[in-house]
Specification:
Rossmann fold; membrane; seven-stranded mixed sheet; globular; alpha/beta; 7 helices; 244 residues; single chain
């Protein structure tokens, strides 16, 4: 406990300019508009390489969830710049949502690259509030590296289940808390407050598998994996899907 607090204080000192800007109300808008999209782009390049085989495996059975019409309507929560598009099957109809509208450059680049998809629309919306999407209207929902920063995981999963048709599937790949007895968890606790401020609300110690188990999926497949991220406290991940 004391060690964690001492090291946290050291990190706060190191990041004191950011804390000051936050106190003055300057950091959050700058982070949302410029810093976060920029840094996320860089991190995503590394993360995409490291997680590519996991994503290929994860999305392999997406075509199994086509609706009665033979179409696959997919909604992605927290699309960012669209790094998952390459894994979606040809002809898939995609609704993109993100709480942050500042990813447009990367997003339009990835849309051009992935002409095998039909992009329906882009909604600026939080995962907890997908009110613009009718209940039971999509066959699949995808969410990768997003549940770490939503305000409420429970509300987000309730919205996921609402917009999915019966028999539809929710796909996820998320970083999670490490084993409590591990050094990794110790460093996650040390970094927690500063990391959350710098990375737009990202929480390092969420045990998301518990939220998924508590949600009302009729079938749930979760795998604990490790995605090696150099010098970053986000190595433990979960990957899988739940069926409504």
């Amino acid at each position: 406990g004391a060690n964690v607090l001492l090291l946290r204080a050291c990190l706060v000192l190191l990041a004191s300019p950011i804390y000051l800007l936050s106190f003055l109300g300057i950091w959050e808008p700058f982070c949302r508009k410029i810093f976060f999209p920029f840094i996320l782009d860089k991190i995503c390049v590394i993360h995409d390489k490291k997680s590519k085989k996991h994503k290929q495996e994860l999305f392999r059975n997406l075509p199994d969830f086509k609706g009665p019409s033979g179409e696959l309507r997919l909604l992605e929560i927290g699309t960012g710049s669209g790094s998952n598009f390459q894994f979606y099957p040809p002809g898939c109809k995609v609704i993109c949502t993100d709480i942050n509208p500042n990813f447009q450059d990367g997003l339009s680049k990835n849309m051009k690259k992935n002409q095998h998809l039909h992009f329906e629309r882009f909604l600026v919306a939080a995962g907890e509030d997908l009110g613009q999407v009718p209940s039971g209207s999509v066959d699949a929902v995808v969410c990768t590296l997003v549940l770490c920063s939503v305000h409420s995981v429970g509300s987000t999963l309730r919205e996921v289940l609402r917009v999915l048709r019966p028999g539809g599937a929710f796909y996820f790949l998320e970083h999670v808390a490490a084993e409590h007895s591990s050094w990794r968890y110790f460093w996650q606790q040390v970094c927690y407050p500063t990391w959350k401020l710098v990375f737009a609300g990202c929480c390092l110690t969420r045990e998301l598998w518990k939220d998924l188990e508590e949600a009302k999926f009729s079938e749930l497949k979760i795998q604990h994996i490790s995605v090696a991220m150099p010098c970053m406290p986000i190595e433990p991940h979960i990957v899988g899907y739940g069926v409504k």
